[in-house]
Design goal:
rod-shaped, mainly alpha
Length: 56
């Protein structure tokens, strides 16, 4: 049986090994940087033709 040592008293390698054991995987998670599905009818704040001025 291993002797219990508090986390704060573990050395750096032991803390790292313990942390790696407790971490889960992110394989099923979709990242926030993935663009959402665009709605064609959504408001667009930028003008359609930026450089052109209307005819007067």
């Amino acid at each position: 049986m291993k002797k219990f040592i508090p986390y704060e008293k573990l050395n750096k390698k032991a803390r790292r090994a313990l942390d790696l054991q407790q971490r889960g995987s992110w394989e099923g998670v979709r990242h926030a940087t993935v663009p959402a599905e665009a709605d064609k009818r959504a408001y667009k704040r930028h003008p359609k033709h930026k450089g052109q001025l209307p005819d007067e």
